[in-house]
Amino acid sequence: MNTKAPHPLLAITFQQERKRAVAQGVLESASSTFLLLIAIQWYHAGIIAKSLLAASGNCGMILSVVIVSWVAHRQWKLTQAAAGFAFVGGLAFLVAALFPSLLTLVIGGVFGLVAASCLIPLMTQLYQNHYPESERGGLFSQTSRYRIVVAILFSDLAGRFLTGRLESHPLLLAFYALALFSMASFLHKIPSDPLPLRESPHLLQSFRHLKEDHFFRWTLYCWMIIGFANLMMVALRVDYLANPQHKIEMNPTQIALLVGVVPNIARLLMSGIWGWLFDHLDFYRLRMLLNMSFALATVTFFTGDSMSGLLVGAVFYGIGIAGGDVAWSLWVTKFSPPKLVAEYMSIHLFMTGIRGIIAPLTGFWIVAHYSISTAAWIGVLMILIATAMLFREPKKRINLSKQCWNAGKKRQKTKIQFLPQRKRRTAEENTIYYLLKN
To answer: How much is the pTM?
Structure first.
């Protein structure tokens, strides 16, 4: 447990993060619901446009590896760099609002969400720097509640507004621009330090952690499988409810209820519980619980067309995403040396971005050639495989943490000599050596 005193900037960081969460709640409905809904029902977009919008935020995640190295090399302060990306995203949505067309919707939506995604590794490093370890999950979940409440209310209001008047969608895009401009303002008020300069100026230097950290690498393998399944099915939710091909064809109000309102109510109720579990439960066990929530959500939502099944699936999805908010955003803080959190997070985001682009295309391809229920069962199978892969890791990780803790206390005396020579080390011992060096 971290025994250090809370960071002196904890209060202002938490205050501004609560404000930013309100703007984030507005923006959240863009990627989850309304950009796709507008593209499908107003512009009758094809598979390429739909896939680009579904995968847009992931393009920014792929760039995060370069972004982190670039921001560190330029020695920009964390929050100043994040504010700049938010402002650029706001400009992209503003252009889409002022010049409405399918082309500007796709370009503005993609660039806006790419810019918003660039904030993520920088903010994770900020949480590492400013939030105490024993409270990090709880503090994050508290700000998440603000985001979730706003997401619920805004999804409902926007769905009602667009029902019968989809031609007014540029006003919604203007709200997304305003949300990003507000985020830039709130971030600008948080003092922060630059990322530490590394010896190598290479823009892809973060990838070295994949080679050296066994547990980080194995967890990314598992996360790649579960994440691919989730992102494939998330991209299909709006299409499943809005596309006449699936014989459901709901209106914007109903879609907003099942995709935005109901999941976010469950998410709000469970957010604090998952935050507490993140701070007190072994990460791998937490991840297995999350996997089961997503598996149940996929089965109940996509394998039947009754309203009751859709509602149950929406609830399970909300339960899973509540835990996913905390785990996805903060899990690298449990693996990484404190100064390298942004670099570890950038690798995680890179992998998320890769699967986030491929998964929607794969999902739409499966639906086009087979059926949406086939895609759902493939997704469930992948979730179960990823869960099985995690079973062997918890005990090893716990033992590793104890060894790193004990070795850290003896580090000055031993100079890491308690480990065998490199040629004889196991993967776990190599990880200890690597973490202690950093």
So the answer is: 0.76
